[in-house]
Design brief:
With 551 residues, the protein is of the alpha+beta class. The chain is built from 15 helices and 19 strands. Helix 9 packs across helix 11 and helix 13 packs across helix 15.
């Protein structure tokens, strides 16, 4: 990422350019801004690749042309969505966002679309609305499309070069136009890219090459607690799907891959309070002068956290924490060895905004990053939370948040129980533990027709890609609720028997997920396609899956 000074300069330059393009300025007598803004989006940007049109049928070429002709409006579709906050942890904009997503599905001619409320979940919290749509175009195949419409909150507003819900443009690296905003890469940018591609097909042909089912959740950043409840209560809504197609993107280098599998993730909160401990302040925070004579729940909480981890913070001391972890298969080992040969760790660290990684060995880094088991502190709050200044406070209560990533054949809830048992043994019986949610791991296989369609799209678009390992694997998906649809849920208490191939893959690029200055590339460069190319890639996958590329 550029440093702060560079970002600031870019921001000022881009803001001036944007105001000029939109007719902004101090002239109060200027004509009103037209409803259709001329953004001047270049469909190809500076991308050196292009689809091989000799392999694209005439109808799909007309869809491509429609996408090019409406590039500005397609980008504005993303901006409008970014300008609607949808923060699941606070609930800000969630009801409005759910209705907005329903409107997207209605525009595709879906016969049935509905916002479903999820009043309560097994984790003791109400779920956010789930949006479902069923679109029958009378075709042979049916694809299930998974979306999340919620985003992370803004925790460091001062670090953003533009307000995070403005959807402004700037230049970043080789890309002449990227959009900055919360949710641009995770995941509204890829999803709007998908929707624009689908809507272009619908506008050109009046139909779609396959039937579609949509499921959009507003709880992905809350461990998908609402979606889990909804799917388990309504599995019949999904049984007619042949496969699930997800969004995708390219790496900064231009290389692409497949997704579908998911690592496991379980999330807990730990709370130490004077009331439960029987020492320290009880009804509220008190004056800090009393620390000389009074125990501190916060300092005790820090000692408790320290008892869980190794000195470097990268290992877990809880007995049995790593039990059940399956080793990488020989095919996965070989994939990592091959990938490590061309990995520059300095560039990789810069791309995600870290000083350096735990290890300087590329192979070990890839194993850590994509198949590691971790215990993290995501946040902690108590007492004097105001920046700067002073203010003597002895807090009566402290809460920390922790996510743990795990792999086959581990069990997230068993890991949590082992932590509970260990804390009790260490004398921390009073520390309250709350399970926020659990997303079990799920494997995916890429020997199926949908994966073949993604391969064909990559070939047509000239994109370098690494074929996934032959056997089932979690690699390529991070964590997301794949288990609800892959068949994995059927092995869990209360789970459903839904089981279908899951494949993600498209072109385009973005970065900064969960960070300040999150972005989605509008105009590509080099071997990276921009948003318009991404729309065409989605359309190509659908036509390929329907068997229409050979006609």
């Amino acid at each position: 990422m550029p440093n702060r000074k560079v970002w600031t300069l870019i921001a000022l330059m881009a803001a001036g350019s944007f105001l000029a393009a939109c007719g902004g300025g101090s002239d109060m007598g200027a004509d009103p801004v037209p409803t259709t803004v001329d953004l001047g989006v270049r469909p190809e940007g500076d991308t050196t690749l292009s689809p091989d049109l000799s392999r694209v049928p005439e109808e799909l070429q007309r869809v491509f042309q429609h996408i090019d002709d409406n590039a500005d409006e397609h980008v504005m579709n993303l901006r409008r969505w970014i300008q609607q906050p949808s923060i699941s942890n606070s609930g800000e904009g969630i009801p409005e966002s759910a209705q907005m997503v329903k409107g997207f599905f209605d525009q595709l001619g879906c016969q049935h679309s509905q916002v479903y409320e999820v009043p309560m979940t097994e984790w003791g919290q109400p779920g956010n609305p789930v949006v479902y749509a069923d679109c029958d175009y009378g075709k042979e195949q049916t694809l299930l499309i998974y979306w999340m419409y919620d985003t992370m909150p803004i925790t460091q507003p001062e670090a953003w070069v533009f307000p995070p819900f403005d959807g402004e443009f700037t230049e970043f690296g080789p890309f002449k136009k990227v959009m900055i905003g919360r949710g641009t890469t995770n995941s509204k940018g890829p999803q709007m890219t998908m929707w624009n591609g689908m809507h272009a097909i619908y506008e050109v042909t009046g139909s779609m090459p396959v039937n579609l089912i949509f499921i959009a959740e507003g709880d992905e950043e809350r461990m998908s607690i609402g979606l889990r409840q909804f799917v388990r209560e309504n599995p019949e809504l999904f049984r007619h799907a042949d496969a699930m197609y997800r969004t995708g993107r390219q790496a900064r280098s231009g290389a692409a891959g497949f997704s579908g599998g998911s690592e496991g993730c379980v999330y807990i909160e730990l709370t130490t309070s004077g009331e439960s401990w029987g020492r320290g302040p009880v009804p509220s925070n008190i004056h800090g002068i009393h620390k000389r004579s009074t125990d501190s729940p916060v300092l005790r909480h820090m000692k408790m956290i320290d008892s869980l981890i190794t000195d470097d913070g990268n290992g877990v001391l809880v007995p049995g924490f790593y039990d059940g972890a399956a080793p990488l298969s020989p095919a996965e080992e070989e994939m990592f060895r091959s990938s490590a040969e061309n990995l520059d760790l300095a560039i990789a660290a810069e791309n995600i905004g870290v000083a350096r990684f735990m290890t300087d060995d590329p192979l070990q880094h890839l194993k850590n990053a994509r198949y590691g088991i971790s215990f993290n502190m995501d946040g902690i709050w108590s007492g004097n939370m105001y920046p700067g200044g002073a203010g003597a406070i002895l807090p009566n209560r402290v809460t920390s948040k922790h996510n743990m990533r795990y792999v086959p054949n581990m069990d997230g809830l068993e890991m949590v129980q082992k932590i509970r048992d260990y804390l009790d043994e260490q004398g921390y019986e009073d520390v309250e533990m709350t399970i926020i949610g659990d997303v079990p791991w799920s494997k995916s296989n890429y020997n199926n027709a949908l994966a073949d369609s993604v391969r064909e799209m990559f070939s047509i678009f000239g994109v370098r890609y690494r074929d996934p390992v032959a056997e089932d694997s979690i690699l390529g998906g991070g964590y997301w609720p794949a288990y609800l649809f892959s068949g994995r849920d059927g092995t869990l208490p209360g789970g459903t028997d839904l089981a279908m191939p899951i494949v993600g893959g498209a072109v385009g690029h973005g970065g900064g997920a969960h960070a300040a200055n999150e972005f989605w590339v509008i105009e590509g460069a080099g071997e990276v396609y921009g948003m318009i190319g991404g729309e065409k890639s989605v359309a190509t996958v659908l036509y390929s899956y329907a068997g229409l590329l050979d006609e």
